[in-house]
Specification:
transmembrane helix; transmembrane; mainly alpha; membrane
Length: 58
């Protein structure tokens, strides 16, 4: 399997994790600060992995 495809799969996995954390808010309190920070970190990692995978394939 090509390394670029592995990076794309990793990016999709991290994107799903960021979406899962973003959607897991409390009905009364909303999203907490650490929850938002972790979701942003995962989103950034997902974007970096996806872009790296695309550039590796090109």
């Amino acid at each position: 399997m090509d390394f670029g495809l592995v990076l794309l799969l990793l990016g999709g996995f991290l994107l799903g994790g960021a979406w899962s954390i973003w959607r897991a808010d409390s009905d009364t309190e909303g999203r907490t600060g650490p929850q938002v920070v972790f979701a942003v970190i995962l989103l950034t990692a997902a974007l970096l992995a996806s872009v790296s995978g695309i550039l590796y394939l090109v």
